[in-house]
Amino acid sequence: QVQLRESGPGLVKSSESLSLTCSVSGGYISSDSYFWGWIRQPPGEGLEWIATTFNTGNTFYNPSLKSRVTISVDTSKNQFSLRLSSVTAADTAVYFCARQRRGISDYWGQGALVIVSS
Amino acid sequence: QSALTQPRSVSGSPGQSVTISCTGTSSHFGGYDYVSWYQQYPGKVPKLILFDVSKRPSGVPDRFSGSKSGNTASLTISGLQTEDEADYYCCSYGGSYTFFGSGTKLTVL
Questions:
Q1: Which of chain A's residues have a Cβ under 8 Å away from the Cβ of B1?
Q2: How far is A10 from chain B (nearest CA, A)?
Q3: Residue A52 with chain B: CB contacts under 8 Å
Q4: Strand A93-101 relative to strand A104-108: parallel, antiparallel, unpaired?
Q5: What's the pLDDT tens digit per position in A39-84?
Q6: Dist. CA B76–CA B58, nearest whole Å
Q7: Minimal CA separation from B22 to chain A, in Å
């Protein structure tokens, strides 16, 4: 059973960068069958796709966030990471990591709440 | 690109059927049939309930069905049960980008 777990600071100051890591167990990020992505959900709002990566390092970004987002993969640690720069209060959200294929997110982490403080 | 458009809320009585629409543009769908649907209870992780428009993951009841026509996808839940009360999100894959719908709150009266 594939399991994903997000980790990282729960509080980030406005204008700084948010960094999260997703650790994968029960499966290998190096698999050629799946992509790995980040999705967020502001409190009381809907889901928003942020970015997706493949084990080769290929990346895909939400155009609305592309200028501030970096997604990366570390196959040696079976982890992938998210960095979002110049955060504002609008970036306060629960951040989910997920296993993906053709946009389908079949396994999700439990989510990590990140609050941006002023 | 904005989110796919879903009705804000729908409701139905136990045993009835409800349909949730998900409308986008050709850019959202990219000519593919890569539409998925997620069920989310408050404070919980979204759960995949349909993929590739109408396929169900193992364990999802056949009361959940999906369809797509042009740039509108639909989720139909038949034989409504109280446990179906949740938020539902559609999702499309356009080749490089992934788009989520705005979300629909289903109330089972």
A1: 63-64
A2: 17
A3: 98
A4: antiparallel
A5: 999 999 999 999 999 988 899 999 999 999 999 999 999 999 999 9
A6: 18
A7: 14
Considering only CA atoms, which of A52, A109, B93, B91 is closest in space to residue B101? B91
Distance CA A38, CA A51 (A): 5
Is pLDDT at B98 greater than 80 in this prediction?
A: yes
Partners of A117 in beta bridges: A13
Q: Label residue B92 exposed, middle or buried (CB < 10 Å: 0-12, 13-18, 19+).
A: buried
Q: Which residues contact B61 (CB under 8 A, 6 or more apart)?
A: none
d(Cα A45, Cα A94) in Å, to the nearest integer? 10
pLDDT at B1 > cutoff 70: no
User: Could you identify the residue written with the tokens 């009585």?
Assistant: B13
- Cα separation, A85 vs A17, in Å, equals 4
In order of A77, A95, A99, the CA distances from A25 in angstroms are 10, 18, 11
User: What value does the mean pLDDT take over residues A22-31?
Assistant: 94
Nearest-CB residue to A47 (from B32, B46, B94): B46
The rounded distance, in Å, linking the Cα atoms of A80 and A37 is: 8
